[in-house]
Amino acid sequence: MTSLRGAVPFAGERYFRLSTNALVRYQDAAGETLLEAMAALEQSPGDTRRIRRMVWAALSHEGLTEEAAGDLMDEIGQTEAARLLGEAIRAAFPQAGAQTGDAGETGGNGASRKKRTP
């Protein structure tokens, strides 16, 4: 287990972490910020290339290639990779969760929480 701020441990000593350096590596590789990527995923949630690159950035401290990050996603499963990535994002941007009041949630657009009128 690591004591690094914002680290989300999994599989023993491994962890997802979106440090400043990881965010810069993502931006250099993708040509967009991680926040821009998150906004784009709301419009296109199945963008596997973008998700894999985000996972790669969160694991870039290990020196993995993007392809190796994809292999890891296959190994742990898409759902677990998304959960870990979500936790890493919340750890990297705690103010975003505090502003919306849903820091403990893993995603969604809030539609299930809205009251609907018949």
Key traits:
118 residues; mainly alpha; 6 helices; 2 strands; globular
Taking pLDDT < 50 over at least 5 consecutive residues as the criterion, the unreliable ranges are 100-118
Helix content: 55-70%
Quaternary structure annotation: single chain
Structural class: mainly alpha
Distance between the termini: 50 Å
Shape: globular
* Largest pleated sheet: 2 strands, antiparallel
Please work out how many helical segments DSSP would assign.
6
In sequence order, what are the helices and strands, one letter per element? EEHHHHHH
What radius of gyration results from the CA coordinates?
15 Å
The beta-strand count equals 2
Strand order of the largest sheet: 1-2
| Average pLDDT figure | 84
Percentage beta strand: 5-15%
Architecture overview:
The chain has 118 residues and is mainly alpha-helical. It has six helices and two strands. Strands 1-2 form a two-stranded antiparallel sheet. A hairpin with a 3-residue loop joins β1 (8-10) and β2 (14-16). α3 (48-58) packs across α5. The longest helix is centred in the last third of the chain and has 15 residues, at 78-92. It is globular and about 35 Å long. It starts with 7 loop residues before the first strand and ends in an 18-residue tail after the last helix.
